[in-house]
Amino acid sequence: MRCLYDRQNKRLMIFAAVFGLSLTGILLFMAWQQGIRVRDSLFMWERRAASSLLEQGVPETAVAQAFANTDVTAQGEGLLVKMGHTEENIPLLFEEPGSAFLSAALTAALAGILLTVVLCAVLIGYMERRERMFETAAGIVGKYAEGDFSERITEKTEEKTAGVSAGTVRRFFQSVDRLSTALQAKSEAERKAKEFLKDTVSDISHQLKTPLAALNMYIEIISGEPDNRQTVLEFADKSAQSLERMERLIYLLLRVMRLDAGSVVFEKHPVRIKELSVSAAEDLVTRAEKEGKEILFDGSPDMELVCDADWTKEALVNLMKNGLDHTEKGGWVRVSWSMSVSMARVCVEDNGSGIAPEEIHHIFKRFYRSGSSLDTQGIGLGLPLAKSIVEGQGGVLSVQSSPGEGTVFTIAFPRQTESGITARQTESRITARQQNS
Predict the structure, then answer these.
(1) Partners of 407 in the beta sheet?
(2) At what angle do helices 168-224 and 229-261 cross, to 10 degrees?
(3) Do the Cβ atoms of 309 and 346 come closer than 8 Å?
(4) H-assigned helices in 291-381
(5) Please, which residues have CB within 8 angstroms of residue 150's CB and are 6 or more apart in sequence?
(6) Residues spanned by CATH 1.10.287.130 within the chain?
(7) Distance CA 253, CA 391 (A)
(8) What are the b/e assignments for 372-394, b being 16+ CB within 10 Å?
(9) What is the mean pLDDT of residues 284-305?
């Protein structure tokens, strides 16, 4: 009986029930009227018969006995045959019952025709209403196909009467609306992805212009003074720096775009934090020594972190590089780690120039570089990449800084057991067991 949940179907069933009851009532009324006419015609026949017998001198007792008689004899039947009272002559002998039947039949026919017309009109109206509703729904679905999600089927087909449970058609329209919402979200995501790609291409073009222009200039200078060894060496070194900048830019962009595309699957395993930090600093030690800076480590050598070692190393490299970029000669970058009951924390701290309060909320934006930055080779992708890596593994990357006092980046991961369950989940389960017991 789920079809009765639909408001229009319910109304149609109510109409059908009223129609059936009305037809039954008409038929009963006609049968009652016909019975009254037959009864009256029989009473009239008895009066006439009694009057005729009395006029012929038949005693009243004999007339009364004749009307009360229930037996049928052969002599009586033979007399009726001689008088012409046979079945063939019933319409002539009983005109009033015949006319009553004819009148009843005519009334039934007219009532049947009238009720049929009403039934057909109601059904046509019902089907027309349904047809308009589905046409409206088809038009809105057509707009969905064209990318226009400004209308909803349930709103456009909603009836004025409220408070009745939705039927199958209504639930179907609601499902289509939910599908349109999902399509709208997907379309919006694709639009944003296209805008991001457009902005990224624009940013890449802008970022590559400087090193490419510098390379062209360096090549012209080298070509113009091929015999000047000092000039050739100087600008060859600068050319190598420009190429290195371009290489790092392309490398970082590829890593960022892989994360954005969702094609990275983080494989988490226990790894010693000190080994991970030292490995991340390998490529930066030479630069630090050359610039008169130090990279320090502070923490238990046996402390472990459950993470994707390669990607987490990438995040640490970018954080340490950022620290070196923003410290002057004699400065330091320190990597420290600690473990609490529920969290594992790795801090990358420097004693450099710090970050202004008005800029601290922008440092994780792509290609953002502070106007007062000491970094002349920065690209503006290292910190956003580090943040995406940490958050992609379920962690949090936060920053604390004051101008002139240095900066501290903190990576926080939920502490996990060997089974992969976080320590916080383990504590919750133990507490629940204790309460149940």
Answers:
(1) 350, 401
(2) 170
(3) no
(4) 309-325
(5) 143
(6) 186-257
(7) 18
(8) ebebeebbbbbbbbbbbbbebbe
(9) 92
Question: Do 243 and 211 form a contact (C-beta atoms < 8 A)?
Answer: yes
**Other Cβ atoms closer than 10 A to 62:** 10
Separation of alpha carbons 269 and 305, rounded Å:
8
Which residues have C-beta within 8 Å of that of residue 13, sequence separation ≥ 6? 4
Start-end ranges of CATH 3.30.565.10 in the chain?
268-424
Instruction: Give dist(CA 437, CA 434) in Å, integer.
Output: 5
**DSSP string covering 151-195, please?**
--HHHHS--S--SS---HHHHHHHHHHHHHHHHHHHHHHHHHHHH
- b/e sequence 401-418, b meaning 16+ C-beta within 10 Å: beeeebbbbbbbbbbbee
Pick the CATH number of 268-424 from 3.30.565.10, 3.40.640.10, 3.30.479.30, 2.60.120.260: 3.30.565.10
Q: How far apart are CA 214 and CA 242, in angstroms?
A: 7
Task: Give the SS3 label for residue 337.
Answer: strand
∠ CA(416), CA(320), CA(292), 5° rounding?
A: 145
The per-residue pLDDT for range 190-228, each reduced to its tens digit, is 887 788 777 767 767 776 777 788 788 888 888 888 778
DSSP 361: T
CA 6 to chain centre: 24
3-state secondary structure of 149: coil
| pLDDT for residue 359 | 87
What CA–CA distance (Å, rounded) separates 185 from 163?
A: 30
SS3 429: helix
Distances from the Cα of 432 to the Cα of 273, 343, 425, angstroms: 32, 21, 11
Cut 0.85: pTM above it: no
Query: What are 55-107's pLDDT values in tens digits?
Result: 888 888 887 888 787 787 888 777 777 777 666 665 555 555 556 566 666 77
Instruction: Take residue 126 and report the two structure tokens written for it.
Output: 């019902």
Q: What is the DSSP string of 396-432?
A: EEEEEEETTTEEEEEEEEE-B-TTS-BHHHHHHHHHH
CATH of domain 186-257: 1.10.287.130
